[in-house]
Amino acid sequence: MMTNSTNDLVNFLGMDRAQLTTLFAELGEKPYRAEQMMKWMHHRQVSDFDDMTDMSKKLRSRLSELGRVHEAPVAESFESVDGTRKWLVRAASGSLVETVFIPENNRGTLCVSSQVGCALDCSFCSTGKQGFNSNLTSGEIVGQVRMANRLLADVYPDRAHAVTNVVMMGMGEPLLNFDNVVAAVDIMMDDLGYGISKRKVTISTAGVVPGIEKLIETTDCSLALSLHAPNDALRNELVPINRRYNIESLLDAARRYTRNLGEKRTVTVEYTVIDKVNDQPEHAVELAELLRSLPCKINLIPFNPFPGSGYRRPSSMNIRRFQDRLVRAGHSVTVRTTRGEDIEAACGQLKGKIADKTRRQEQYRMIASEAQA
User: Fold this and answer.
1) Which of 111, 122, 221, 347 is an active site residue?
2) DSSP-assigned letter for residue 194
3) Is 118 tagged catalytic?
């Protein structure tokens, strides 16, 4: 069971159905108690055991001795002119991580963080420049979904839940926090949790190949690959983990994952388009050939600037030309609309406030200061 570092109490919010069933069995209770508890926590968003009135007072008292239902508090919130919302959530470490809600006509996508900072140091991502502090617990991950649904209930009164889609594309590398992420995703997809379709819950990875191989045995949610380059030489510069797990091994693992899913499921390939770095015609040709044998959809993401990156966003015309070359080669390609840029909530801009344990933040600040001078 996951414990909360502030007081060593179990955070029931991060326990999936199987874990709760085991817990109640240890307490001499019937399995249906797990279902009751999940409904109270996730459907009714109740945190006080005294309000869980279909359980005996004795059981409620015992639960309060063992743990709590803890949703990490919101420290700050922001709303973009385009309706995007961003919350800074205080993790157990004391650092702040970011959660972003992107509204669309008939759906609401929540971009969820999995770590406090990130150790991968991708060159085009603001999060990576902040360094790494710690993993989020499963309760802290699930709590972001619970928090968003609770705060947006009045904004979207016609929906059962404001959050219809979840992408694990916030701060951190999800597959380097594997157990907590998978437990949280299970709760998101469970009908007693948030009932989100497996096609609408996506785990994104920058290329942790052993993690993808473990996913094959543990979940059937959707998968996204943060590729960003069509060859190893360029990807080594943009995504340093490629030096350990190259493109060939990454795509091979992704193919095995899609075969295991069946049902004509595809992988999403994320490709951040950076001016004069990976947006040239030869890059499009190479990418089209590279992905020919992978059942996938390509999502082109215009680079979102941040201080000290040294990169620029390509023109809309160059992005369209890049897309057209991929489409002519037979690929399904979309261009992500930049959302929430005015509140630094766009892809690659999330940075939170991290008590860095890798000493990278000091270096980043120096670079950013020089760039702004």
Assistant:
1) 347
2) T
3) no
* DSSP-based helix, strand, coil % in the chain, nearest 5: 40, 20, 40
Q: Which residue in this structure is represented by tokens 């030309």?
A: 321
pLDDT digits (tens, 9 = 90+) for 196-236: 999 999 999 999 999 999 999 999 999 999 999 999 999 99
Overall number of domains in the chain: 2
Look at residue 6 and tell me if it is in a domain. no
Domain stops at, among 19, 47, 68: 68
Kindly report, residue by residue over 285-306, the tens digit of the pLDDT: 999 999 999 999 999 999 988 7
Residue 52 is assigned to a structural domain of this protein? yes
Burial grade of 82 (CB within 10 A; 0-12, 13-18, 19 or more): middle
Per-residue confidence (pLDDT) for residue 361, from 0 to 100: 53
CA distance 101 to 116: 18
Identify the residue with better confidence: 69 or 354: 69
Task: Give the domain extent around 162.
Answer: 74-372
221 carries an active-site annotation = no
What was the pLDDT predicted at 265?
86
pLDDT of 4 above 70? no
- Length reported for the chain: 373
Q: Does 36 lie in the same domain as 163?
A: no
Half-sphere exposure of 110 (CA within 13 A, CB side): 29
Residue 365 pLDDT exceeds 50: no
Task: Please state, in angstroms and rounded to a whole number, the distance separating the CA atoms of residues 224 and 240.
Answer: 18
Question: Annotated catalytic residue: which of 98, 140, 173, 344?
Answer: 98
